[in-house]
Amino acid sequence: MNKPDYHIFVCASFRGTEAKGKCIKKESLRLIPYLEEELADRGLNAMVSSTGCLKLCEDGPVMIIYPQGYWYREVNSEEVVDEILDALEKGHAAESHLLA
User: Fold this and answer.
1) How many structural domains is the chain composed of?
2) CATH number of the CATH domain containing 52
């Protein structure tokens, strides 16, 4: 595998070995397959990883894109993922979903 252009992290709420936070309760993990499919369909060279708790539960589900350093809040639907990926393809952040 070549080095990806983007590394996308999705909070999976793990604290130790258990998923205890709010992101997983807000179904963050169900978006990962959709995200991976969209990345492939769009031809974006990206890797997706789930993370432990990012301690931003009230803003979850949280998603981060590196190397840009975009931290997104309330990534709770396929529509939000599409808006974020649309902006990424255009070379900027999806401002309305950025974590302040």
Assistant:
1) 1
2) 3.40.30.10
